[in-house]
Amino acid sequence: MDGVIGLTREDKIKKFQNVIQKTQSDVLGLDSIKLVDVKDRIVNGYLKKYQGKCIPMSFNDDVQRIMESQKWEEIGELKEGNVFVSTNKIDELLNNVEIKDCERKGERKVWFSRSSSIGPKKRMEDFDVFVEDMKMLSNKTSESIAFFGVFDGHLGTSTADYCSFKIYNEIIRHKEFPNNLKRVVCDAIYSVENGFKPLAEKLSANAGTTAAIALITERNIITANVGDTEIVLCRKGMEPEVLSTRHIPKEENEKKRIEEAGGKVYNNNGWRVEGLLGVSRSIGDEPLKTCVTCEPSIFEKELKGDEEFLVIASDGFWDVFSYENATAIIRSFLEKEQFVSGVDEDGICLPKNLKDMARYLVDVAIKRKTLDNVTVSICFFNNHC
């Protein structure tokens, strides 16, 4: 692979500078969002307060009351035809909202474990989200649908932050939800890409993010990814099955697509789009949008009853773990009748329970000297919990 044939070093530097001049990290992160995004931010913030707890049937009514408690248009700032509202004001409002106690009805279909670490980086740019049951957020379905995802940001946190609360809300709002979920997921990703453009302009920054998401219905698993955040399914007695595609510039098909779109792939401390971006597909990254698409890879698998767990993790994890190693470690604890306290041979605290599993894997990744932020999210299927 050689994307530099025919270009002198001076030519390359000039080409890089044209992009770099437009590519600034967002120092402040997602400091404001459009008026139309406010409710989705409230949904996500309120949902986080219920993590690990029963979500009340009044959830949507509660969100509407929170939404109506402020005159957001008056609070916001009008700029270039859009009203922008401070995310701090939204988050501060949610901090003061109390949650309700309620009793869980029915058996849990899935169990989640999630953890993240800044690692050796100076800034944490990973975001993740999980929704135990999307039917609690929508009256369009009576079917239990779990959602979770990981977003690995670069050049700042704004895009990853935005995606973490927008994508699942876009999925729920889609006219075809909960049917034709592959189409719904694809459309939601493009919708979020388009929705972020005005924010990128306001921030005068060009952050981007990967995205890897999964929806687990009562019959199927639907996964989608953009970039190099990967998804792995483990079935009982089977080898791990990868339900994602690594979208990186050194892959021949991706390199060809980039060059056909007018871009170049250069080796600049690793193969990069225009010598800058280490993934070939992303959400955001506006200066590179002519050749860096947000088109996702989408997979669908029928549930057969032998599913053990599904892992989504950022590349900071997969850089130091093989699929086989990661799944073998998780399985080794699943096969035990009970968890025990103590430390492993490297002095890392063993997981106390299933919920603590992701924390243990993140700690191991740090011990193995990953060079990036690390986020691990695991969905355990009830038939193997």
Structure description:
- Residues 111-381 form the PPM-type phosphatase domain.
- It comes from Entamoeba histolytica HM-3:IMSS.
- Pfam families: PP2C.
- This protein has helices at residues 9-20, 38-48, 59-68, 72-75, 87-95, 158-173, 181-203, 252-260, 315-318, 323-334, 357-367; strands at residues 32-34, 77-79, 82-86, 110-117, 126-131, 146-154, 208-209, 211-216, 220-226, 230-235, 241-242, 265-267, 271-273, 283-284, 297-302, 307-313, 374-381.
- With 385 residues, it is α+β, with helices and mostly antiparallel strands.
- The chain folds into 2 domains: 9-28 and 107-384, Phosphatase 2c, domain 1, CATH 3.60.40.10; 31-103, no CATH class.
- The strands form 4 sheets. Strands 5, 6, 7, 8, 9, 14 and 15 form a 7-stranded antiparallel beta sheet that branches.
- A hairpin with a 5-residue loop joins β10 and β11 (241-242).
- α2 packs across α6 (158-173).
- Residues 1-5 have low confidence and may be disordered.
Summed up:
It is built from eleven helices and 17 strands. With 385 residues, it is of the alpha+beta class.
Main traits of this protein?
385 residues; alpha+beta; Phosphatase 2c, domain 1; five-stranded antiparallel sheet; 11 helices; 17 strands; 31% helix; globular; disordered N terminus; protein serine/threonine phosphatase activity; PPM-type_phosphatase-like_dom; PP2C
